[in-house]
Design a protein that fits this description.
The complex is a heterodimer of chains A (about 325) and B (about 900). Chain A is α/β, with parallel strands linked by helices and about 325 residues long. Helices cover about 40% and strands about 15% of the residues of chain A. In chain A, the strands form five sheets. Chain A has a seven-stranded parallel beta sheet with strand order 3-2-1-4-5-7-12, sandwiched between helices. In chain A, helix 1 (about 15-25) links the parallel strand 1 and strand 2 (about 30-35). In chain B, strand 6 (about 140-145), helix 4 and strand 7 form a beta-alpha-beta unit. Classes of the chains: A alpha/beta (about 325), B alpha/beta (about 900).
Chain lengths: ~325, ~900
């Protein structure tokens, strides 16, 4: 299925860029929508995804929308998350309907179904705005529910939840870990034994491109996407640090302590109205100390997709990028 | 007698009250039907109006699966103080062609309350009136619990032409001799307690569901109590208790006797499903039931208590299986040729009765000659018969491996008895569970063994292996010692040769498995099967009377007299095979001039590690050994080679088999080396007369493929041979599963056959890892990882849900950590490189949990549990 006209929202991040390039490589025509120029060789609409007029303009003349734009953070007031993630998704759905766009791939997160306990080999459980932790997960849960509720014969909707996406140029996960490790302040939380799966960015990009292509015959479902290579968190951190050429994790913090510290930090951050990302949050403490890995069978079957970059290859590429930087 | 089946009760339209007060009461109750209770479908509920023999009309509440009973009806009868809710799983599991009906007895559950107590005879008649009203005319299998047992059997005797089978769970039909009845019921029965406990308060109603293990969910307990809110609702609960006839003066006594005597003539198939932890109906009630229904099959659900249908929800599957098999003739074992029909287990011993060579040698202990052993076995056997042992009686042997044990085993056989042997390694609780399940009539024990028998509350007469002081004798209730039995036997005028008259297909042994995977199972052998086993061992290893054996795995010493070869046991603690040193082995070999050594891999490991301690005399004795056998767990070739350095003349062999069938295959070290490496452990080709097939493993880890001998198919190893076990004892369901391919035994091991017909063992079926990419068997990966320097042992397990498990390798590094944790990066990388499969996590452990019998089989289920907990993270 080549030659589809695709609108990608939120294309300026690592995953957005990679996905746009993947879609182009597959012969699709891509337009992007985000606030600032993304520097991609494609047609750009600049503006706010929560602005109905902007979104209406952006979807005009497309066959499919890949909705990536979101506020991904751990601080800030609820209203910002609601506007970017819930209202933004609503505007995209409305625009698709109004313009007669037939396919919508909504990019979500496994966090929408995560209430803090260990997830071992589970599938894509229903989004749960009540049980999730933090503004980001809650707003994404509401957004996914709204997006999938819009699935109908005229508009096929899929939700794809890439899990812990990383790769060269990642400012979210990798760079934060590396910065802390370089400063000698990256401890293991708990025993460092929690089994976590991650997604190398190129695999996320191919999965999203595949979702755009199968959306239609496959619809109304949510899929978790990952490398399918879970590893103990200590091993993941050690390998990230090794690739970046910084010292590995040092010392251990008991989970309870980390969680309480996260709670305190979040309180201080929100009380002071700080906008920078805090060093530790409860969400992060949980992410780095409880198992998160997923049953990928349905995902791979439905999307007709499998990861092409193994964990080993991913770390090699990451090391190459740091060496060149 | 009139009967008006009411329409299905839900949604129940208000029924017009009939004339007279009973009708009014019935109408009031009709609104009180089971509501939304866990596991109960309201569509099953119906009310049936039945006029009893006194002309009174009563409404029965019945759970009815409906459907056309083209094959038959399962009539389920509850006891006191439960109601038909007890049978909800069976109603839900109604097999095709079967209608399941489960009434609430009158006065109970959601049936009408009664003005007066009801006798047993009335209740039996009531049930007949109800089945008439329900139009139950075809074949019926009754299913009953508790006091429903007698009522259901009474119905069965009254409907003999319809009765096709009976299923009973934790019930009693008669008090065993010298028994006053269940203490708890007697307490509730007493006038003083009955009303306050059963009626005025819900104590009895609540207590019935408090006995369950594991504890029942609160909602289920509430469901049982739902029809018994208020003293007026509980009147029949108290009346029911009062109706239990403990003495002949009781009005219900004649009916009880009619039933419990009548069933002796019942020749229909019977199934007993039993919760052994029942504080109400203890073991002796089961024994009494089995005396009256000798044809009954039994399955004991380990750990289950009185409320069996709750404690063992799988009872419903067992009932379904039972009714499915009613019309299937029992599949016969493959008829095995019997070379010498006159041969018995003691024949070889008798043949050497004139021989003064050593038959059994305890190193640093006693030695007995063939002639003495043969004479003692005759005498003790006769003495046992004089002391009351009857053909077919079961005898628990609680004697450490010794001359006494050997003599006792053959004497029991000589007397026509059945030996019951459980491993000390099971621990007291495990042995208690095992030996109690075997319903032994006698115990032969050392002082420690008899003390343990007392602690385990084993039934039966007591015989002591050695002499005891008068105080100990009294305390342990010893009837005779072996010496006294021998004296009794010498005095006996006639031999009364009950053993020779005993058919060769009668039971001779119940041997318990090591319990490495769940509770130990009792494996029943007939004499024919045991003889076939000895014959196969003798032929496979070309054993002659000129051979002499050192049995470092002590139970193997018991083969000695049966094979007619002398045996020595080394001076070690038999429960710790890993304590055998090269010197101890050398001493044993010298003591009997051994030609054959049998030792577990764990024992051999220690022997090779202590080779330096062996003196010249030890080496000389070991140098005469022609055959080294090691079994019990996969034996690495390197270990056999190392042992070969001590026994240079010995050909090393490892038989493969299990408690249920030993041996299945045999392989020599040379053959192992010729086979090279592969996926699993090469155990050689099936022995003559042994058929091996595989049942392929599905992606979900179950072995459901058809039996095949095609090379390369990985599946559950299935065996057919003359020496395969007869059946599992008191585990009817397990037996059905293990022998579901007629004539074949499913071993629970997984492996494949290669092009050359060699069998490779790849692990245990429950240990197969089910990844998204397919199933992975553990042994091949473990072998590759164990070849790494710095790794002493490895276990491969799966964590996560079936079908999408992550592979975890747990290694014991040379520099062992203090606890289980993530392996260091270099070790993890090396393990991943060696594993040859995607590995999610490499963990390092100080040691791996192993079985108690051989200290060789890794308990991968426990490894998986520990790994799962660790890898879930620190919550």
């Amino acid at each position: 299925m080549t030659g589809t006209r695709v609108l990608v929202t939120g294309a300026s991040g690592m995953m957005g860029r990679a996905t746009v390039l993947e879609l182009l490589a597959r012969g699709h025509r891509v337009r992007v929508l985000q606030r600032r120029p993304a520097g991609l060789p494609v047609e750009e609409v600049l503006g706010d995804v929560a602005d109905a007029d902007v979104v209406a303009r952006a979807v005009r003349g497309t066959d499919a929308v890949l909705h990536l734009a979101a506020k991904v953070d751990v601080v800030g007031p609820w209203a910002e998350y609601e506007r970017a993630n819930v209202v933004g998704t609503r505007r995209v759905v409305e625009a698709c309907r109004a313009a007669g766009v037939g396919r919508l791939v909504h990019v979500s997160s496994p966090a929408v179904a995560h209430a803090g306990s260990a997830l071992m080999g589970v599938g894509a459980e229903p989004a749960d705005p009540v049980g999730t932790r933090g503004h980001y997960a809650r707003s994404k849960a509401l957004a996914e529910i709204e997006a999938l509720a819009a699935d109908c014969p005229d508009l096929a909707v899929l939700a794809v939840r890439p899990h812990l996406v990383w790769g060269p140029g990642d400012t979210q996960l990798v760079e934060r870990l590396v910065t802390r490790a370089r400063a000698g302040r990256l401890p293991l939380i708990g025993a460092g034994s929690a089994l976590i799966d991650t997604t190398y960015v190129d695999n996320a990009a191919t999965a999203l491109a595949a979702a755009v292509e199968v959306c239609g015959p496959v619809h109304g479902e949510a899929f978790v996407v990952s490398n399918g290579e879970p590893r103990p968190v200590a091993e993941v951190l050690t390998r990230v640090c090794a690739a970046a050429g910084v010292p590995g994790p040092r010392g251990r913090v008991p989970f309870r302590l980390a969680w309480l510290a996260g709670l305190a930090v979040e309180g201080v951050w929100s009380a002071t109205g700080a906008t920078a990302t805090p060093p530790l949050t409860r969400f992060l403490a949980e992410q780095l100390s409880t198992a998160h890995w997923f049953d990928q069978r349905r995902t791979r079957q439905a999307l007709g997709w499998a990861p092409t970059v193994t964990l080993d290859e991913g770390f090699t590429r990451l090391a190459g990028w740091y060496a060149a930087a | 007698m009139t009967a008006t089946p009411a329409p299905p009760a839900s949604p129940a339209p208000p029924t017009t009250p009939a004339a007279g007060s009973p009708g009014l009461r019935a109408a009031a109750l009709r609104r009180d039907l089971p509501g939304d209770l866990p596991g109960l479908d309201p569509a099953w509920s119906r009310l049936v109006e039945v006029t009893d023999r006194d002309g009174r009309s009563n409404a029965w509440h019945v759970l009815d699966s409906g459907g056309e009973p083209t094959t038959g009806t399962l009539l389920c009868v509850h006891g006191n103080p439960t109601w038909s809710y007890l049978w909800r799983r069976l109603v839900a599991a109604a097999p095709p062609g079967w209608r399941v009906v489960a009434p609430d007895q009158l006065g109970m559950g959601f049936s009408d309350r009664l003005g007066a107590p009801r006798t047993l005879a009335q209740r039996v008649a009531d049930l007949g009136d109800l089945t008439d009203a329900l139009g139950v005319t075809g074949p019926v299998v009754t299913v009953a619990h508790d006091w429903g047992g007698v009522i259901s059997l009474g119905w069965g005797l009254d409907h003999r032409d319809q009765l096709r089978g009976v299923v009973l769970t934790n019930t009693a039909v008669a008090q065993p001799p010298d028994d006053l009845g269940p203490a708890l019921i007697r307490l509730a029965h007493s006038r003083v307690w009955r009303t306050p406990v059963c009626v005025r308060t819900p104590t009895f109603v609540r207590a019935a569901t408090a006995l369950s293990w594991p504890p029942l969910p609160g909602a289920v307990r509430d469901a049982y109590a739902a029809p018994y809110a208020g003293a007026d609702r509980r009147a029949a609960v108290g009346d029911f208790v009062a109706d239990i006839p403990f003495t002949p003066e009781h009005p219900s006594w004649p009916e009880l006797v009619r039933v419990n005597e009548g069933i002796r003539a019942l020749d229909v198939p019977a199934l007993l499903l039993w919760g052994p932890n029942d504080p109400v109906f203890a073991e002796r009630y089961l024994a009494e039931l089995r005396r009256r229904l000798p044809q009954a099959r039994l399955h004991r659900f380990s750990g289950a208590s009185h409320l069996l249908p709750e404690d063992a929800p799988q009872y419903a599957d067992a009932v379904v299986r039972f009714v499915a098999g009613l019309d299937t003739p029992a599949a016969g074992q493959a008829a095995a040729p019997q070379p010498d029909p006159g041969r018995r287990l003691w024949s070889a011993l008798a043949e050497r009765a004139g021989d003064d060579d050593a038959a059994v040698v305890e190193v640093a202990g006693r030695t007995v000659s063939w002639s003495l052993l043969a004479r003692r076995v005759e005498e003790i056997g006769r003495g046992l018969a004089v002391a009351g042992l009857r053909a077919g009686d079961r005898v628990a042997l609680l004697v450490p491996p010794s001359v006494d044990l050997t003599a006792a085993v053959y004497a029991v056989w000589r007397a026509g008895g059945v030996i019951v042997v459980a491993d000390q390694g099971l621990g007291l609780a495990g042995m208690r569970r095992a030996l109690r399940s075997a319903s032994v009539q006698h115990v032969i024990g050392s002082a420690e063994g008899l003390a343990a028998a007392r602690l385990m509350m084993l039934p039966g007469t007591r015989f002591s292996a050695g002499p005891l002081g008068p105080a100990a004798r009294r305390a342990l209730g010893v009837r005779y010692s072996l010496v006294e039995l021998a004296r009794l036997g010498r005095q006996a005028r006639t031999l009364g040769d009950q053993a020779h008259r005993r058919p060769v297909d009668a039971e001779c042994a119940v041997l318990f498995t090591s319990g490495a995977t769940g509770p130990a199972k009792g494996v029943v052998y007939t004499q024919r099967q045991a003889l076939a086993q000895m014959e196969l061992v003798r032929r496979t290893y070309a054993l002659t009377p000129e051979d002499r054996l050192v049995a470092a795995f002590a139970p193997f010493a018991l083969f000695g007299p049966g094979l007619g070869i002398g045996c020595a046991t080394p001076a070690i603690d038999v429960t710790k095979p890993g304590t055998l040193t090269a010197a101890a082995l050398g001493d044993a070999a010298a003591a009997i001039a051994a030609t054959v050594v049998f030792a577990s891999p764990a024992a051999l490991r220690r022997v090779t590690a202590t080779a330096g301690e062996a003196t010249g005399a030890h080496r000389a004795a070991l140098g005469r050994v022609r055959l080294l056998m090691s079994a019990g767990a996969p034996v690495p070739a390197s270990l056999l080679r190392a042992a070969g350095a001590l026994m240079p003349a010995a050909e090393a062999h490892t038989p493969y088999g299990m408690t249920e069938c030993l041996p299945v295959t045999d392989v020599s070290l040379a053959e192992v080396e010729a086979a090279g490496t592969g996926d699993g452990v090469c155990v050689g080709r099936p022995l003559p007369g042994v058929d091996v097939r595989l049942s392929a493993v599905s992606p979900d880890g179950t072995a459901d493929g058809p039996l095949t001998d095609a090379p390369g198919v990985t599946g559950e190893i299935c065996v057919r041979a003359a020496h395969v076990k007869d059946h599992y004892d008191a585990l009817w369901v397990t037996e059905q599963q293990s022998s579901r391919d007629a004539g074949w035994h499913r071993t629970g091991d997984v492996g494949h056959l290669d092009e050359g017909g060699r069998l490779w063992v790849q692990g245990r079926l429950p240990h197969v890892v089910t990844t998204a990419a397919g199933v992975l068997t553990p042994v091949g990966v473990e072998q590759r990882v164990e070849r790494l320097d710095g790794v002493t042992a490895a276990a491969v397990v799966g964590v996560g849900p079936v079908g999408t498990q992550a592979v975890v390798v747990v290694v014991v590094p040379v520099r062992a950590p203090r606890g289980l944790g993530v392996a260091d990066p270099d070790l993890a990388a090396a393990v991943r490189a060696a594993a040859g499969t995607e590995v999610a996590a490499v963990l390092a452990a100080p040691r791996l949990p192993v079985d108690i019998r051989h200290a060789s089989k890794v308990d991968r289920a426990r490894v998986a549990r520990d790994a799962t907990a660790l890898l879930a993270g620190s919550r």
